[in-house]
Specification:
This protein is mainly β. It is built from one helix and 18 strands. The protein has a 16-stranded antiparallel barrel with strand order 3-4-5-6-7-8-9-10-11-12-13-14-15-16-17-18. The protein has a two-stranded antiparallel ribbon with strand order 1-2. It starts with a strand and ends with a strand.
Length: 301
């Protein structure tokens, strides 16, 4: 799919006023944000599910372990802090535990007067190599309050995420681009298809900027998905399976198909969810424990 884009002067200028609000300064004056040259569908009902920043607050942390042929599993670890007496995230800290003495990435959430995400500031600090990387994710709204886009600004990169909607307010598609100063805009798209009640996403079409095409079919259990409404940007790695940020239940099976392959090869993945009680998720993992690598997510570890 070939799309043409208009590059517009939509730089996020970080001013002295922002410094007073503890917003770090980003020096990327040679980078501009790109807009699509076509309009995306807008809804009759505004839900803004991707701007809620909500997670069940009984989840304090998630540990992801990838068991393979090495003596110790590869690990990733997330910690969550919440606004008092709410399910809204105030801070998320991401660790690669084998670097835990050196590096962490802290995401600070701020909200507007409508309790929707206004900005997320990511500060990745490495004490051993003595460097710091800052990314600012700005949530942009239409005058009627609809979330239109999320921009990421960094000293060397920019990113855009644009949203199209079904009439009932559910996310229909996300156009995304990530590039440095020497690269022309090239948007990929994810298109979301739901079941008849719009409870869960049952299919996603993913088309990259180079026209590589994949489709994913999703199958669900009947239990509550605690990760719904947790989203920062399409590029941010989060501890969930599939489009969990849009679905009410948990993905227990994925069928991936490479549409570029003339043989139509499909790959199937199945997952098992375990609960401490009927409403409290304890862990989730690959269903086949003999699979290499075998991936296990543990809650509050």
């Amino acid at each position: 799919m070939k799309k043409f884009f208009i590059v517009t002067a939509l730089l996020l200028l970080i001013s002295c006023d922002n410094e007073d609000n503890n917003v770090p300064e980003i020096d990327n004056n040679n980078l501009t944000h790109a807009e699509l040259d076509f309009e995306l569908d807008e809804p009759d009902i505004i839900l803004n599910e991707l701007a809620l920043g909500k997670l069940e607050r009984n989840i304090n942390s998630v540990l992801r372990q990838m068991f393979d042929n090495f003596p110790e599993p590869e690990e990733r670890y997330w910690e969550f802090d919440y606004i008092e007496n709410s399910d809204r995230i105030s801070k998320m800290t991401f660790y690669l535990p084998h670097y835990s003495d050196c590096e962490k990435d802290v995401y600070q959430f701020s909200y507007n007067s409508k309790s929707l995400i206004d900005m997320v500031i990511s500060t990745r600090t490495n004490l051993c190599l003595e460097f710091e990387v800052i990314k600012i994710y700005t949530f942009n709204y239409e005058p009627n309050g609809l979330l239109k886009s999320i921009y990421m600004d960094n000293d060397f990169f920019v990113e855009e995420n644009y949203f199209g909607y079904y009439q009932n307010g559910k996310i229909k598609e996300i156009y995304s681009d990530h590039r440095n100063g020497g690269t022309e805009p090239g948007f990929g798209v994810q298109r979301f298809y739901y079941d008849s009640t719009f409870t869960n996403v049952i299919k996603v079409e993913h088309i990259s900027s180079s026209n590589s095409r994949y489709t994913y079919q999703y199958f669900y259990d009947d239990s509550i998905n605690p990760f719904k409404d947790v989203f920062i940007a399409a590029s941010v790695f989060m501890p969930y399976i599939g489009p969990a940020y849009l679905s009410e239940n948990n993905v227990i099976k994925v069928i991936e198909k490479n549409e570029n392959n003339i043989y139509g090869n499909e790959f199937e993945y199945e997952y098992l969810f375990n609960y401490a009680n009927i409403n409290k998720l304890d862990s989730y993992s690959d269903k086949d424990e003999t699979k290499v690598p075998y991936i296990l997510y543990s809650i509050n570890q």
